[in-house]
Structure formats: structure tokens, C-alpha cells
Amino acid sequence: MSAIIKCKFCEPNIENFNILRSYLPGDYEYMVCSFNADNTNFKTRLRTNGKNQDYAHKWLEDFQMHSKCTMRVERTYPHSGTKNVFKVDLRCQHNTRPRSEKVREKESCKNTDCPAKMGITIKRVVTERKSRSKDPHLPDYPTVIQMDFCHNHDILTPEILKHRSVLPEVKEKILALFQLGHNPATALDMHKYDLLLEHGENFKIICHDR
């Protein structure tokens, strides 16, 4: 279970962390700086103790696995400057920005113009000299995670789950089946059969989550 505490510097108006625990991956320590919720939608600003780009990528991977929400890169900041080590803006994959109304109106189109978004920034921690930063969260919590969790679609329905990225282990399994002589159709059938044996009555939901 993730460790979630209120920020002693920002003093957010939050007492119950259950909604955050529903979506935040475990094995991380979070400091909540701001939080506003409306039913299942919420906006929050978090601080964590990550200090480099590898941490950001790993956290995002874990978040997408735990929450079942896939985020796409909206904007990167290759030259983050002297204050930041890493910065990226992300949007929900169900905001595909279709190029035409014809594409938008396709029944199979996954676009819902979802407004959900996220930003991850890792502040630079100065160790070789006295820092001029007035950020009280430094040096212990240099990572800032800004979440606008306002999806305009269900998250756990088959229609939504089928658009998630294929997991690396599933790719490896399918490739191994190809090596054994399977074609794409029979490899998929084998994978679904294994899921049926493993998950039983939950198979219909699991098989749509790629």
C-alpha cells in the first residue's frame, strides 16, 4: 500500500485518501499538496521523492498499470533549464485529436475528447552549494505530479480497456508462440485460453485488458 500524507507546508483540505489509493500505484511515498474532488473526478498536486528521469518513467508505468488509465505524451521539455531535471505533460489516450469530423464520428474511434491530463516535473536538487530555491519541499520531495483526473468515459469497461497498450510480457508470449509455429489467430486463441484458465469468471473483463 502506498504511503500518503498531508503536506505540512501546503496544508491541503483532505482527510480521506481512499480515492487517491484507488489510482496511485503502491510502493511510493506521496505528499499531498492540494486536492479537490467531485464524485470520482479529482484534481491533485503531489510531491514524491524521485530524483531522476528513470524514476518518472517507472512511476508512470506503474500508474498506468494500477489505474488502468493510459496517458500519452502531450509535450516534452528537453531543455528543462537549471531548475528542473525532467518535465513532461501528458493527456488521456482517449483524446486523440482527430483530424476530421469523419474520423471523430467513426464508431470504432476511441476518441472521446477526454480532458484528463497530468504533468510530471522533477526539480533539480543542489548538493554542491547552498540552494537558492525557496521550495520547502526540497531536497526530500523534488518530484511534482499534477493530476487532473476528470475522465469523461468509463475506465474499466471492455470498450475502453481494449484500447490499452499491450503489456511487454504479453508481447513476449505471443512472439514465443509464433516461434512454435502459431499464426496470429491461433496465438491469440492460446493466450485467451490461458487467461480463461487463470481468471475463470473474470475472464470477460480480463481478456479485454491488453
Describe this structure in words.
There is one protein chain. Strands 1-2-3-7-6-5-4 form a seven-stranded mixed β-sheet, with helices on one face. The model has no long low-confidence stretch (mean pLDDT 85). Helix 1 links the parallel strand 1 and strand 2 (29-38). 29% of the residues lie in helices and 24% in strands. 17% of the residues are buried. The chain has two domains: 3-153, no CATH class; 166-207, no CATH class. The chain is α+β, with helices and mostly antiparallel strands and 210 residues long.
Keywords summarizing the entry:
single chain; alpha+beta; 29% helix; globular; 210 residues; 2 domains; 7-stranded mixed β-sheet
Q: How helix-rich are the residues, as a percent range? A: 25-40%
Reported for the largest beta sheet, the result is: 7 strands, mixed
Which residues form runs of ≥5 with pLDDT under 50? none
The count of domains is 2
Counted by DSSP, the helix tally is 7
Radius of gyration equals 20 Å
Beta-strand residue fraction = 15-25%
Number of E-type strands: 7
Distance between the termini: 24 Å
Run of helices and strands: EHEEHEEHEEHHHH
